[in-house]
Amino acid sequence: MRLSYKLAIPHILSLLHSSGAVMLSERDLPHVATTNYDFVIVGGGTAGNVVANRLTENPNFNVLVLEAGPSDAGVLALQVPFLCTTTTPQTLWDWNYTTVSQPGLNGALVGYPRGYVLGGTSSVNCLVYTRGSKADFDRYANFTGDEGWSWDNMLPYFKKSEKFTPPSDRHNTAGQFDPSVHGFDGLNSVSLPGAPTAIDDRFEAAIDQLGGEFTWNLDTNSGSPLGFGWSQAVIDGPSASRSSSSTGYLAREFLLRPNLHVLVNAQVSRVISERTRDGVPEFKTVEFRLNGGDTLFTASASKELILSAGATNTPQVLMNSGIGSASHLSEHGIPSIVDLPDVGENLFDHPIITLSWRVDSNMTYDDYKRNSALQDEALQTWKDTRQGVYANGISQHIGFVRVPDNSSIFVNATNPASGPGSPHFEIFVSNFLLGATPSEGNYLSISTILLTPGDNARGSVKLNSSDPFAIPLIDAGLLADDATDVALMREAVKSVLRLASAPAWGDYIIEAADSAQPGLNATDAQLDTFIRTNTRSAYHVVGTSSITRKGAEGGVVDPDFKLKKAAGLRIVDASVLPFVPAGHSQAATYALAERAADLIKATHSA
To answer: Which of 225, 387, 419, 541 could form a disulfide with 400 if both were Cys (CB 3.0 to 4.6 A apart)?
Structure first.
């Protein structure tokens, strides 16, 4: 069987009464409408499934999850780590969004993948597991006035969510990570690379040869990420499979809980307030459609609604519900119910750029992306042994670098890093050409992500029309802070070029894959042109429903995730983070969802 890189999605799960799992279908809508749910969760994604699982640990809580996309069950592309680059864009598991014109990228419109499937973006991302720095979370605590957001108080939630597993090849991992900073009993599996690559030794030699910013770090997820080490990914080592919030928090044993109901293909249009409580609107009902149909249905919660639709869709649902900027809502004829001008604002994202070289080797992964016989062989090996090339994600090694505090960049601009131990950019190395694969040749790719966009590099999510199901207008704000962003990305590209210049690559790298790619002797102007032309999004979207201090005028939610100026509704997803962490956003999202679940439980424990 040839494995297609755009695999057809299987028919969605209908009601599985035969197995006891409570996965609902269209015929169960009358049951949904009449069930007294304690909680309704909008979005079965990275955060929503965490909250659903933890709340239903209490058998007295009935929970309904509404997920806009289909089930992830049985879809190989969503299971095999190596296929992670094929799950988006322009697939059935992607919202297939595109940004508005990005001035910082010479006006480019950028594809903006978001997970449209049970598990959300955790089911379609490229698996990298990074937490950010200690200072990121201490900044959240200082900004919100709530010490519960500090690193010391969030680390237990990182550990609670995590199940660190041995890699699929069972190699000796001594010296490759620090067990003391990880969890081993959680529901989100994390592992080290499951198969060696031909560039592992070369990369390690390059780090040893270069020095400077290239230092070793036993575990970049310790809260002190500066330096380079082995990459960690959301892969379950023993099964060599993607670990998503669906495979972990909605595993079969949890779907067997009679108090947990999950309805897929259920896209929510808005939340509804039918009364007030303590002088503010109370939201207890959601409106949704099923399978893209015209009929609208409702479901209600007696305790709380939990909005976990993600950093692009959560603000859209809020605005469709009359929650947001009164002036923006009036443009689309939507009555204002809760005037919160920051809804959809404050979008933070990470810009990314990749440099690639043609190499003298036939041991890269490029052939596995263009040769159907190799694909078949690798897939069969994965099925039979859960080992081999398909057990790996996009990178074996990862590193974090900080620009010196005395850099000229910060003479007239504020240093955007969260603290002195926080990096400005990330570097990871791939044993193939990231992006479209040419018909021939073997390649090395080194990517860098700007982790600390400047304060003015903020985008937004806005409504495009009064149609609640219309695609929103997304401005990613990429390279929008003229004082810092291009200058910091320039330093990141220079660091990548230094890494590629190490003697360890001397008999390996032949030439740049793109003749327009700058070399070590490029001028700043040449680097800046390359950066503006080739930078895109790393899809680490946060901030559009930002947390601020309790009682603050700005922001969207209080530090306990409760919507400001309203009752009955909490927002639990990456949209609440007021600054993007110096790492990929999914680990932080798992941790914040674990904390939110505890807060919700405590509220309703009496």
So the answer is: 225
Could you tell me the CATH superfamily of domain 23-74+246-346+543-603? Answer: FAD/NAD(P)-binding domain (3.50.50.60)
What span, in angstroms and rounded, lies between the C-alpha atoms of 182 and 157? 10
pLDDT for the residue numbered 20? 35
Is the distance from CB of 118 to CB of 67 less than 8 angstroms? yes
Cβ partners under 8 Å of residue 447, min gap 6: 352, 353, 354, 355, 427, 428, 429, 430, 434, 496
SS3 category, 353:
strand
Q: Which two tokens stand for residue 485?
A: 């962003």
C-alpha to C-alpha distance for 339 and 469, rounded to whole angstroms: 22
Cα separation, 106 vs 326, in Å, equals 32
Q: How far is CA 351 from CA 92, 315, 391, 570, in A?
A: 25, 22, 27, 29
Tokens of 335: 């009555």
Indicate if the alpha-carbon torsion angle 588, 590, 592, 595 is positive or negative.
negative
CATH 3.30.560.10 maps onto the chain at 77-111+163-241+348-537
Handedness of CA 186, 231, 80, 5 (dihedral sign): positive
Could you list the residues known to form a binding site for FAD, using ranges.
117, 121, 125-128, 268
Largest Cα separation within the chain, whole Å, is 72
Is residue 478 within 8 A of residue 104, CB to CB? The reply is yes
Residue range 265-323, pLDDT digits in tens: 999 999 999 999 999 999 999 999 999 999 999 999 999 999 999 999 999 999 999 99
**Phi, psi (5° rounding) for residue 113?**
-60, 135
Question: CA 363 to CA 27: how far, in whole Å?
Answer: 52
Residues 6+ apart with CB under 8 A from 482: 456
User: How far does CA 187 lie from the centroid of its chain?
Assistant: 17
Q: In the chain, which segments carry CATH 3.50.50.60?
A: 23-74+246-346+543-603
Structural tokens at position 202: 């070369």
Q: Just list the catalytic residues.
A: 540, 584
Distance CA 427, CA 353 (A): 10
Alpha carbons within 13 angstroms on the beta-carbon side of residue 396 total: 19
Q: How confident is the model at residue 23 (pLDDT cuts 50, 70, 90)?
A: confident
Nearest C-alpha neighbor of 49 from the set 261, 208, 221: 261
What residue has token string 């929650």? 323
Q: Please state the φ and ψ torsions of residue 144, each to the nearest 5 degrees.
A: -95, -15
- CATH architecture of residue range(s) 77-111+163-241+348-537: 2-Layer Sandwich (3.30)
- Angle, to 10 degrees, between the axis of helix 151-161 and the axis of helix 134-144? 120
pLDDT in the model for residue 9: 25
Task: State pLDDT tens for residues 469-487.
Answer: 999 999 999 999 999 999 9
